[in-house]
Amino acid sequence: LMPGDASFWPAPPPPRVSACLAMSIEAAEAAVASSGQRVRDLKAEGAAKEAVEAAVAELQAAKATLTASVEAALASCAEGTPEYDVLKAKLPAAAKPKGKEKKKDDAPQNDRAAAKAARAAQRGAKAEAKAATKDEAVLGPNLSQAEMDSAEFGNLFIQSTHAATRAWTGVKELVPSLAGQQVWVRARVATSRKQGKALCFLQLRQSMHTAQAVVFAKEGELVGFAATLPRESVVDVFGEVTLPAEAVASCSQSAVELQVRRLYCVSRAMPELPLQLEDAARSDEQLAADPSLTRVNQDVRLNHRVIDLRTAANQGIFRLQSAVCEHFRGFLLSQGFTEIHSPKMIGTASEGGADVFRVEYFGRDAYLAQSPQLYKQMALMADLDRVFEVAPVFRSENSLTHRHMTEFVGLDMEMTFFEHYHEVLDMLDRTFCAVFDGLNQSHQEELAAVRAQHPFRDLRYRYPCLRLRYDEAMALLRDKGPAKLAEKLDSETDERARARIRERLDARGPESLAEHADTEDMGTEDEKLLGEIVAELHGQDYYIIDKFPAAVRPFYTMPDPTDPRWSNSYDIFIRGEEVTSGAQRVHDPQMLLDCAKEKGVDLSPIYSYVDSFKYGAMPHAGGGIGLERVVMLFLGLPNIRKSSMFPRDPKRLNP
């Protein structure tokens, strides 16, 4: 072929949709999503029929606009291309072009087809011309930080081109004393509600706080821009704080409104979210009262955790979790403790047993630490005297219960003592009470946010807390437990649960509660039942059980000095569930070797731990606390996954 031949040159590419039409389609899709959400909201609120019909008409108009924009784009796009197929899929079903029909000889059919094509082309031309002037108004201009003063609304891209010049006000800070002042606020669009052409209400949300912003403009496109903002978009709002005639009941900042003067979209959320925040935020009481309400199950929440965490209750839960660490750390520091950081990859299982994660470590095995136990003790032998740590803990337990995870945060403490391990137990008691007092005194707003969605009874506690010996607790369980189980049997409707209760009531069966021995280990069901009995008899939800059987404790637990059946060990309970396990540790190296041999534990892999007691050892004790369990039980939550930001269990490694 020669350059003069037509086939020498490649065929020109098929025509593509103009940027203007593409923007028009995007705006139309956003308008359809916004209008559809408005219809759903009005129906859910039980709004008047006229309001619903008006919203439906607005939705139909938005769909018609979308259809016209897509048809115009199809007319300018080559059929059979990927772009054509994508555009075709955007059409409502009734408007989608049909497949090619077989040719017919009758002229009327051809005339109708030609007329239809002409009308489509005419509509497309009109839509494109209209979009050329209106697209910028609906979507707003795209602005850099340097250009934002050139428009009162638009899409603002923050790329750190300018140093901070604006003074910001948090949504929480919008109070009546600011009336008449103009402020900048950055928040999310929780809802957008347009009323007519000149008015739009935005609910702005920042963490647990919300405020109403009013967009009013008889001229220009500011209202139209505000109305098409998808929910959860991030916006910068400049406006004047005013006092509404009536309180805005739907907002936390109910005594103020923000009259919008300028509005910029910093990040536009996708029109359709994988879950709706109003569904995820419904209270347990609402869901129980109305079975027809949409429920967001646990897996959906965890799969889209970033959105789920935006609910006010979750904002409260994880701020309270942070506060638990703050008060734990603050109190122990005030008592002369030193914070340490122990390794999480170790050469042997720190607690012994099979519940350990093995990892490859340069040709040999390493293990994820089950606790910082050994290193806490070694730190004391290094004369740090009192230590604590806040760090991850790993347990390879194939358990899918409401309170177990394979990774959690441990709040660990260890300290030397002078005469009796109860000196340490008392320090633990004081630490818990300092945490509880701190939450109740300084975090009422967060507690209220959680309580609004997950109602719970305030934790009942005192200092010093109720303490029971293990044999006393078992006697209480045998004495009061059967009557409590009989009450449960009368009210229980699930047959499997009833069968389980009958097993525990059977005096001759292996699960008999009445025959529970003093030295028998206490299972989860026993713990919960004992918690109910203690709450009923003593009016307390927080208590300690001391002197556990030696057979159920680790090899490094100090035996009781008078009765080898028992040990100097203890657990701490909240609402009938264990949150802390601790003990006096064996600090004599020969006794440690003997105890390990008795329990069949090989100490050769942790010789450095044993050796640390050969150079002069202080008597000491301590305990490990599960952070997520403390938060779960303090707030009365039903599942530990609600108090873990990104929980890990045998079936979940993402997100």
How would you characterize this protein structure?
With 655 residues, this protein is an alpha+beta fold. 40% of the residues lie in helices and 18% in strands. The protein has 19 helices and 18 strands. Helix 1 (19-45) packs across helix 4 (107-139).
SSE blueprint and pairings:
Blueprint: H1 19-45, H2 49-75, H3 82-90, H4 107-139, E1 142-143, E2 153-156, E3 182-195, E4 199-206, E5 209-216, H5 222-227, E6 234-242, E7 257-267, H6 277-280, H7 284-289, H8 298-303, H9 305-308, H10 312-334, E8 338-339, E9 345-346, E10 358-361, E11 364-368, H11 373-384, E12 386-394, E13 407-416, H12 422-442, H13 444-453, E14 466-469, H14 470-491, H15 495-505, H16 524-538, E15 542-546, E16 569-574, E17 577-584, H17 589-598, H18 607-611, E18 620-626, H19 627-634
Parallel strand pairs: 1-2, 2-7, 5-7, 8-12, 14-15
Antiparallel strand pairs: 3-4, 3-6, 4-5, 6-7, 9-11, 10-11, 12-13, 13-18, 15-16, 16-17, 17-18
Q: Beta-strand percentage?
A: 15-25%
Low-confidence residue ranges: 98-104, 131-137
Total beta strands: 18
Question: What would the average pLDDT be, to the nearest integer?
Answer: 88
Helix/sheet category: alpha+beta
In whole angstroms, the N-to-C terminal distance is 58 Å
How much helix is in the residues?
Answer: 25-40%
| Widest β-sheet, arrangement of strands | 8-12-13-18-17-16-15-14
Q: How many helical stretches?
A: 19
Largest sheet: 8 strands, mixed
User: What is the gyration radius calculated from CA atoms?
Assistant: 33 Å
Name the shape in a single word: elongated
Quaternary organisation: single chain
